[in-house]
Amino acid sequence: MYAQMIKSESSNDDPQALAEFQARIDRGERIEPKEWMPEGYRKTLIRQIGQHAHSEIVGQLPEGNWITRAPTLERKQILLAKVQDEAGHGLYLYSACETLGVTRDELFEKLHSGAMKYSSIFNYPTLTWADMGAIGWLVDGAAIMNQVPLQRTSYGPYARAMVRICKEESFHQRQGYSIMMKMAQGTPAQKEMAQDALNRFWYPSLMMFGPSDAESVHSTQNMAWKIKINTNDELRQRFVNETVPQAEYLGLTVPDEHLRWNDDKQGYDFSEPDWDEFFEVLKGNGPCNEERLGARRKAWDDGQWFREGLSAYADKQATRRTAAE
Amino acid sequence: MALDGRDPVKIDDALRPAMFDWLCRLGDNALILGHRTSEWCGHGPALEEDIALANTALDLIGHCQMWLGLAAEVEGQGRTADQLAYLRDAMAFRNVKLVELPNGDIGQTIMREFLFDAFHFELLTELSTSPNTRVAEIAAKALKEVAYQLDRASDLVVRLGDGTEESHARMQAALDHLWPYTGEMFTADAVDTAMTEAGIAPDLSDLQTRWTATVKDILDEATLTLPERRFDVHTGGKQGRHTEHLGYLLAEMQFLQRAYPGAEW
């Protein structure tokens, strides 16, 4: 889940208009960019889609870390293609966000200043090649849990971006699982790397869904607006139910001694992640927060002359065209 | 028929060592430039550029796989493209020095791509009609992608050269830095001559004439000045005498294959 803990903004709009808007959503209509929408809906969406977009581009970094060290030419191509897809997802999502009246540059500024967040998961380091497997399998797997329902979200551009993104995410998850398979069936050293990657990424993956939000006011409003489709706990449970058998198939052990199948709820009981750690990571105290944000800021700052050069050329061309007419 | 259903390479056995070397040059240029380009992934100056650079890297790694695959087949020692990429040391690499230089800023990266693409495009155009069908097939496939890469790089060189004062200065500095490495692409040695005489590869001096014309045109439009310095100061990469940079690049690229010999990934 690339958007965590999205607070809903309140609206001071006309109650009658709000009620009509809600009725449209309840009828399953899609809201499109030029149509009227409550200010709170617009702002909440900017926050959510923006955070999602930021997660995609910051998410390039932990995997990008291994592109130059990928162990075969084929793995290198697959990883490059995957990380490139993430940049593409960022692009769709920033574009979707722009339809709400905010520019991509403004969103970048908010990312760089820390005013907007990205998913906590990308503040964890990628230490071995097995992490490429674990991220594809677990992180993209968790993202899919959240994004598949979001294909039905009420805001048209967001829903359509999600349709494209989901197609690519399932390829990402499969490539991750394929790396895990190779390693789990490989040499003892490879299997150890695979188990270690699972150990390190299991709880951070569970954190991706955010803390339990059953009682949250924000969650209720966002669900009414169909910006959020399921609760965090529902999605986390679904993720665990699907992932545990996959780990068993790999012959790897999920690092949770309390993990048990519960016949009554037809799902696994499992341990909660360490929420103190989660909030520390959100506050900037994760293992890689400074590096990730630092890398994004550096890319932006170093690229300033490049962007300015292109703009200056475009201006000159426009002037030349006008002069020629 | 070869195992994959394609025609086996038809060449004289006497030509095999030269052809292996020559194919490694094609594959290694693509591999090393692809590696350098891939270093930008996630760090590009704009999202669109990030995507385009990753795409270019992906194309090049794809070309490398085809050329090194054919090289391994010509060598006939049972090695694979992966083994050639991951288990040779620097002295066995045959890329030109131009492609192994560190990226520098994005301007230098783009200028290098342009200077190399303009050569690569001419070379693949000729090779796509090579009487050796295996070579021609790979070249024709790669040419489509390289034609686009050249278009993109030329366009950016023009826009940045004729952009702001700063972008102009950076592009000129990049050109001045890279220029003395470009001549190696056209410096023929015994391997090149053998391949030309066998009718498989074009004469490098013909390519140089067309490359020079393209480069002059684009640099003119970009308001950049062709350096007066010799363009063939730094050669030797094609014979395995590289810069200090290649060793570090290989140490990074080959790390897993070296640390876990024989493991499958």
UniProtKB/TrEMBL annotation, chain A:
<dbReference type="InterPro" id="IPR007814">
    <property type="entry name" value="PaaA_PaaC"/>
</dbReference>
<dbReference type="GO" id="GO:0097266">
    <property type="term" value="F:phenylacetyl-CoA 1,2-epoxidase activity"/>
</dbReference>
<dbReference type="GO" id="GO:0005829">
    <property type="term" value="C:cytosol"/>
</dbReference>
<dbReference type="Pfam" id="PF05138">
    <property type="entry name" value="PaaA_PaaC"/>
</dbReference>
<dbReference type="InterPro" id="IPR012347">
    <property type="entry name" value="Ferritin-like"/>
</dbReference>
<protein>
    <submittedName>
        <fullName>Ring-1,2-phenylacetyl-CoA epoxidase subunit PaaA</fullName>
    </submittedName>
</protein>
<dbReference type="InterPro" id="IPR009078">
    <property type="entry name" value="Ferritin-like_SF"/>
</dbReference>
<dbReference type="InterPro" id="IPR052703">
    <property type="entry name" value="Aromatic_CoA_ox/epox"/>
</dbReference>
<dbReference type="InterPro" id="IPR011881">
    <property type="entry name" value="PaaA"/>
</dbReference>
<dbReference type="GO" id="GO:0010124">
    <property type="term" value="P:phenylacetate catabolic process"/>
</dbReference>
Automatic annotation (TrEMBL), chain B:
<dbReference type="GO" id="GO:0005829">
    <property type="term" value="C:cytosol"/>
</dbReference>
<dbReference type="InterPro" id="IPR052703">
    <property type="entry name" value="Aromatic_CoA_ox/epox"/>
</dbReference>
<dbReference type="InterPro" id="IPR007814">
    <property type="entry name" value="PaaA_PaaC"/>
</dbReference>
<dbReference type="InterPro" id="IPR009078">
    <property type="entry name" value="Ferritin-like_SF"/>
</dbReference>
<dbReference type="GO" id="GO:0010124">
    <property type="term" value="P:phenylacetate catabolic process"/>
</dbReference>
<dbReference type="Pfam" id="PF05138">
    <property type="entry name" value="PaaA_PaaC"/>
</dbReference>
<protein>
    <submittedName>
        <fullName>Ring-1,2-phenylacetyl-CoA epoxidase subunit PaaC</fullName>
    </submittedName>
</protein>
<dbReference type="InterPro" id="IPR012347">
    <property type="entry name" value="Ferritin-like"/>
</dbReference>
<dbReference type="InterPro" id="IPR011882">
    <property type="entry name" value="PaaC"/>
</dbReference>
